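step=encode ok
step=design start
structure_in=
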C-alpha cells in the first residue's frame, strides 16, 4: 500500500509540474543592459523618490528597484491583460513585448532603490 501512495504522488507531481513550470519555461531571458535602454517610461514615475501621481487618484508610486524579476514580469503581464487596472500602467504594458518585460525586470531587479538626496 505505501508503494501505491508513492506512485500516485509521483504521478500527480509529474502531471502538475508542466502546469506550474509552463509559463516560466517559455519566458524569454531578461537582459539588464537592454532593460536600461527601455526604461524611459518607467523612470518618469518609478525613478523619482517620493513621487505621487494625481491620475486616477493621488497615491505614492511603488518602488520597483530591487524587486524580484518574476514579480515584475507577472505584474506587467497582469497590467497588459487587464487583471490589474491602473490606466497608465495598462497603457504602458500594452506596448511591451514579452522580451521588453523580461529586460525591464532584469534591469530593475538588479537596480538599487533610488534614495533621496540630503
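sequence_out=
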Amino acid at each position: 500500500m505505501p508503494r501505491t501512495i508513492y506512485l500516485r504522488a509521483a504521478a500527480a507531481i509529474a502531471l502538475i509540474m508542466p502546469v506550474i513550470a509552463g509559463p516560466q519555461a517559455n519566458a524569454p531571458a531578461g537582459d539588464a543592459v537592454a532593460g536600461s535602454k527601455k526604461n524611459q517610461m518607467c523612470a518618469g514615475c518609478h525613478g523619482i523618490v517620493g513621487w505621487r501621481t494625481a491620475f486616477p487618484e493621488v497615491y505614492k508610486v511603488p518602488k520597483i528597484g530591487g524587486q524580484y524579476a518574476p514579480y515584475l514580469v507577472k505584474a506587467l503581464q497582469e497590467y497588459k491583460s487587464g487583471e490589474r487596472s491602473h490606466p497608465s500602467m495598462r497603457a504602458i504594458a500594452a506596448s511591451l513585448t514579452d522580451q521588453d518585460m523580461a529586460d525591464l525586470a532584469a534591469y530593475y531587479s538588479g537596480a538599487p532603490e533610488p534614495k533621496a538626496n540630503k
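step=design ok
step=annotate ok -> Residues 28-110 form a domain with the Cytochrome Bc1 Complex; Chain D, domain 2 fold (CATH 1.10.760.10).
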